[in-house]
Amino acid sequence: xxxxxxxxxxxxxxxxxxxxxxxxxxxxxxxxxxxxxxxxxxxxxxxxxxxxxxxxxxxxxxxxxxxxxxxxxxxxxxxxxxxxxxxxxxxxxxxxxxxxxxxxxxxxxxxxxxxxxxxxxxxxxxxxxxxxxxxxxxxxxxxxxxxxxxxxxxxxxxxxxxxxxxxxxxxxx
Length: 173
Ligand code: SF4
Fold this sequence. Notes:
The protein is of the alpha+beta class. The protein has one domain. 36% of the residues lie in helices and 14% in strands. It has six helices and five strands; from the N terminus they run H-E-H-E-H-H-E-E-E-H-H. A three-stranded antiparallel β-sheet has the order 3-4-5. A two-stranded parallel ribbon has the order 1-2. A hairpin with a 2-residue loop joins strand 3 and strand 4. The protein is globular. The site of iron/sulfur cluster (SF4) has 14 residues, from helix 6.
């Protein structure tokens, strides 16, 4: 909070990235969002913590059903979430609350690290390539996604689903 205040006092656009884990209390989360807005924060990105294979603490990550329930409960507060400036697209929120299945487009938010471009996304480390072209053309994108690949089973994270939300918003407004 000190850092946020300092950044704001210097005139920077300031946002937080907020990952919610299993057991997060919706009421407490809502109050936290209220507090962030009261500080003049410019935006909040929210993502459900997903038990990606390298995560050290598997038991506190959310599966898809618990994710949807939690987001429904959070968004029943704060005037349906209107009190809070989220940087997530509204479609992401819809998918987190809804029962219909949107699937990931992991190529929409590729990850570059000191090792190179990570295949296929930052959650799954299935190798690195040197160039963006190799990543795009050499990854078997069709084999990834919920229902297609065991390791993707509980994923609803923004790195895969924001791209889907943006595409769907244009294709099916
Ligand atoms: S569903 Fe997509 S974003 Fe999620 S782990 Fe699988 S490839 Fe990555």
